[in-house]
Specification:
The protein is α/β, with parallel strands linked by helices. The protein has 2 domains: about 10-95, no CATH class; about 105-400, 3-Layer(aba) Sandwich (Rossmann fold), CATH 3.40.50.300. It has helices spanning about 45-50, 95-100, 115-130, 130-135, 145-160, 220-225, 265-280, 305, 325-340, 345-350, 385-395, and strands at about 10-15, 20, 25-30, 45, 60, 65, 75, 80, 85, 105-110, 135-140, 180-185, 195-205, 230-235, 290-295, 320, 355-360, 400. The strands form 6 sheets. A 7-stranded mixed sheet has the order 11-12-13-10-14-15-17, sandwiched between helices. Strands 6-3-9 form a 3-stranded antiparallel sheet, with no helix packed on it. The structure holds guanosine-5'-diphosphate (GDP), magnesium ion (MG) and zinc ion (ZN) (2 copies). One zinc ion binds near residues 30, 39 and 77. Magnesium ion (MG) binds near residues 116, 117, 168 and 205. This is Double-GTPase 2 domain-containing protein. It comes from Actinomadura soli.
């Protein structure tokens, strides 16, 4: 397979089709008619319909190429000035904040039943509410389909109706589109002018089986290749030695079972192969992409295992990353992995990646019961930790050591 190009200098990688796009190739889309404004009428956008697999929602004012100054151009048909940008390949919207601070696609990966769908639902909700406020950050969906799908497939069933989410269908039959968000953080220096930094959260709610090398879809492979950071979710119940640390009431996993294709180490190895395609690194050379590895569902662990541990504390710090806390959690998860005969995972990551960090989180905050969220509702615990670390790694969040040093 040819190794894919990184985004050209000053260019962007489209967060929908993952094609690298030079700035002069980015299209504009006419703002169209609205109220008394006389713009172009909507027409079927075939490139967009091809991407979404449906003509629904693909009737839009036309796109056009223009050199554009300061991110604006006049429509050659109707003369209206527009600032709406679109990918030249798939015609999805490219938000101007994304064009201005390119890169930083965060990808989420995990085996079937690792907790991806649940995590997506909860993380986005946290970012739109509590954590977003804490960080002075906004989370904005990049297209209307993302807004609708998040509500229909994630927020409504899990957060409102408190039903567990259905198992994700394979991309062969289910939706193949990612949810695309732009997370923008305003940093106010004491003397400097406020500055906005953006990060694209591109979340494919994949079925674990889509990551098997022989079945992997092209779009999915490109997603992994384009990722500037990876969040890798691991269900502790799938780790061989972890059963001893689990509360008695928790049933054995109904997920992957003995399927070696779903083992955490095998999945991360496949992702690593994809990343090596793009970065063109030699096998012995560590990859520069930061990887956050999170044990999900840590509410299933015996309380005794967590008592007096870093994982048991709530995260400290507000609007900053507490580096002491980060180190303590990292060490504790590492110790758990080694206790559970899963130390290999940690060793492998250390060999393949220049920078990986370990996390423990719970999206639900409690063990679900008969298809429903526990009585107290969804109470996420440390769900945002991996993202805070990535923001820190990207220079978008300050790190502090409260203990000094
Ligand atoms: N105890 C506990 N179980 C969880 C949590 N998150 C997910 N689960 C369980 O794991 C199952 C699989 O989660 P899901 O998000 O569908 O996994 P996916 O296949 O990776 O998308 C769910 O049905 C839940 O029963 C959590 O935070 N705590
Ligand atoms: Mg799922
Ligand atoms: Zn595109
Ligand atoms: Zn027009």
């Amino acid at each position: 397979m040819p190794s894919r190009q990184r985004a050209p200098r000053n260019g962007v990688t489209c967060p929908y089709c993952f094609e690298p796009v030079a700035p002069q190739r980015i299209l504009f889309r006419c703002r169209g008619q609205a109220g008394r404004r006389q713009g172009c009428a909507p027409v079927l956008d075939e490139a967009l319909a091809e991407y979404t697999g449906s003509t629904a929602g693909a009737s839009l004012p036309p796109v056009f190429a223009a050199s554009g100054r300061k991110g604006r151009a006049e429509c050659p048909e109707c003369g209206l000035a527009t600032g709406n940008r679109a990918c030249p390949e798939c015609h999805n919207p490219l938000p101007s904040a994304y064009c201005d601070s390119p890169g930083r696609i965060v990808a989420l990966v995990g085996a079937k039943n690792a907790g991806k769908s649940t995590y997506i639902a909860v993380l986005l909700h946290e970012l739109m509410n509590r954590v977003g406020t804490e960080l002075d950050a906004s989370l904005v969906a990049c297209d209307d389909r993302t807004i609708e799908r998040y509500k229909r497939d994630f927020a409504r069933p899990l957060l409102e109706e408190r039903r567990l989410l259905p198992t994700t269908a394979s991309a062969a039959t289910g939706p193949r589109e990612p949810l695309v968000y732009l997370l923008t953080r305003t940093r106010r220096g004491r003397f400097a002018r406020p500055r906005n930094d953006s990060l694209a959260l591109v979340l494919f709610d994949t079925a674990g089986e889509d990551l098997r090398s022989r079945e992997v879809t092209d779009l999915h492979l490109r997603y992994l290749e384009a990722a500037d950071a990876i969040v890798f979710l691991v269900d502790p119940l799938e780790l061989p030695g972890a059963r001893t640390g689990v509360r008695d009431a928790v049933a054995a996993p109904r997920g992957a079972g003995d399927d070696p294709d779903s083992e955490p180490l095998n999945i991360i190895a496949r992702v690593t192969d994809a990343l090596r395609q793009r970065h063109g690194t030699r096998p012995g050379e560590p990859l520069p992409v930061p990887v956050a590895v999170a044990l999900t569902k840590i509410d299933v662990l015996r309380p005794g295992l967590l008592r007096q541990s870093a994982l048991h504390r709530s995260r400290s710090g507000s609007g900053v990353l507490d580096l002491d806390d980060r180190d303590a959690v990292n060490e504790q998860v590492r110790a758990l992995l080694h206790d559970w005969q899963a130390g290999q995972l940690d060793t492998y990551l250390g060999q393949q990646y220049a920078d990986h960090a370990l996390f423990g989180l719970s999206a639900l905050g409690g063990v679900p019961d008969e298809g429903r969220v526990g009585a107290g509702g969804v109470r996420p615990y440390r769900a945002e930790d991996p993202l805070l670390w990535l923001l820190y790694r990207f220079g978008m969040l300050e790190g502090v050591r409260p203990g000094g040093g």
